[in-house]
Design brief:
The protein is mainly α. The chain has two domains: about 1-80, no CATH class; about 90-340, Orthogonal Bundle (Hypothetical protein af1432). It has helices at about 60-70, 80-90, 95, 105-125, 130-150, 150-155, 165-185, 190-200, 210-215, 220-230, 230-240, 250-255, 275-290, 300-310, 320-330; strands at about 20-25, 30, 35-45, 45-55, 60, 75-80. The strands form three sheets. A two-stranded antiparallel sheet has the order 1-6. A two-stranded antiparallel ribbon has the order 2-5. A two-stranded antiparallel sheet has the order 3-4. Helix 4 packs antiparallel against helix 5, helix 4 crosses helix 7 (about 165-185) and helix 5 (about 130-150) packs across helix 8. The longest helix has 21 residues, at about 105-125. The radius of gyration is 22 Å and the shape is elongated.
Length: about 350
């Protein structure tokens, strides 16, 4: 079948326009993507981008099959259109996760990028019930991916960002939390509540002065007191949306509580901390240590765990901390294989 390329304008592209690749497998037949799709054309040692399908046109199934026949696996979008594209992919996430033509790495990248896009929107409008519902849907789809895909652990772990931003940290701890929950044998309902709370756990930081959140130097007592307020602020914000169950509040409220009673906001100790809070505290701390911050370089996993064990002794539940170490070294599968009855939950 002949491949027809349609050029835009006079066929020349502006050097000010930046294009980024997207997998063809994320494009569903007979849908409207919402942003222009391009093909990359290499001519005379130069690269030119030609319009394949406009953002307002339906991507026909025969056109997609035509690309597959020509072994074309990637299309391109303008970088400025990435948010539009990710919103489109988000609407197709369940389909993509269950599509055998999409490999594990592609699925993991899409799942991670969609989550980042959702959290950015959430942090811009934290009181929006729509953003919280999107977060819950993402958790549901990610549970489906994690449970059904044998290699989801390696795929998702390879996506985790080691540059710290509040939104990437939120995605990182949600991903780690869901993978660890699977390892521990949580059922689908538990994973849904826990994962939602993990993704939303730092939403209260949107109410804290960014200069304090991003400060490179050590916080003074007054600044630290303000930062600690993010726990209660986040819980209040999410409560006002009326969109999550009571169990989802636990990671939000307890991710800074510590087994020795030295945490905040309530100084809970030992069994007074729910298992979701204990696990959230371990993962939140681990990710903070292993990502690059404005005031500290990222620690290697072993170094981070050693700091948590030596310098924060007594702060973390001994059993869950040991399980977390085993989980990181096991590929996330050993305990899960003993549980045959986990059923994905749909929101």
């Amino acid at each position: 079948m002949k491949l027809i390329l349609v050029e835009t304008g006079n066929g020349e592209r502006s050097v000010s326009v930046e294009y980024i690749p997207v997998t063809l497998n994320a494009i569903r037949a007979d849908t409207i993507v919402g942003c222009d799709l391009y093909l990359q054309n290499c001519i005379n040692n130069g690269i030119r981008y030609v319009l394949y399908c406009s953002g307002t046109s339906i991507v026909k199934s025969d056109k997609i099959e035509e690309l597959h026949e020509h072994q074309i696996k990637k299309l391109f979008i303008r970088k400025e259109d990435k948010k539009i594209y990710l919103k489109y992919v988000e609407s197709s996430l369940k389909h993509i996760i269950n599509d055998d033509r999409v490999n594990i790495k592609e699925k993991a990248q899409i799942v991670y990028d969609v989550a980042k896009n959702i959290v950015v929107d959430l942090f811009e409008d934290p009181r929006s019930g729509e953003q919280v519902e999107r977060s819950k849907d993402w958790v549901s789809n990610t549970i489906d991916f994690i449970i059904k895909s044998k290699d989801s652990f390696s795929g998702m772990m390879s996506m985790i960002s080691y540059d710290y931003y509040t939104y990437t940290h939120s995605v990182n701890v949600a991903v780690l939390g869901l993978l660890f929950a699977k390892y521990l044998g949580f059922d689908g309902s538990e994973m849904q509540s826990f994962g939602t709370g993990m993704l939303l756990h730092d939403v209260g930081k949107t109410q804290i002065d960014p200069d304090i959140i991003n400060k490179k130097e050590r916080l003074n007592d007054e600044e630290f007191a303000k930062v600690k307020m993010h726990v209660d602020l986040g819980a209040d914000i999410i409560k006002q949306t009326g969109c999550v169950d009571s169990a989802s509040f636990i990671p939000i409220m307890q991710h800074h509580e510590r087994d020795n009673g030295k945490g905040y906001p309530n100084g809970l100790r030992g069994d007074a901390i729910h298992k979701y809070g204990k696990i959230a505290g371990i993962i939140d701390t681990y990710d903070a240590l292993t990502t690059k911050r404005s005031y500290a370089d990222a620690k290697k996993p072993f170094s981070a765990l050693k700091i948590m064990y030596d310098e924060m002794k007594g702060g973390f539940d001994e059993k869950y901390f040991k399980d977390f170490i085993l989980f990181l070294g096991s590929g996330g599968e050993r305990q899960y294989q003993k549980r045959k009855n986990i059923i994905p939950v749909s929101v």
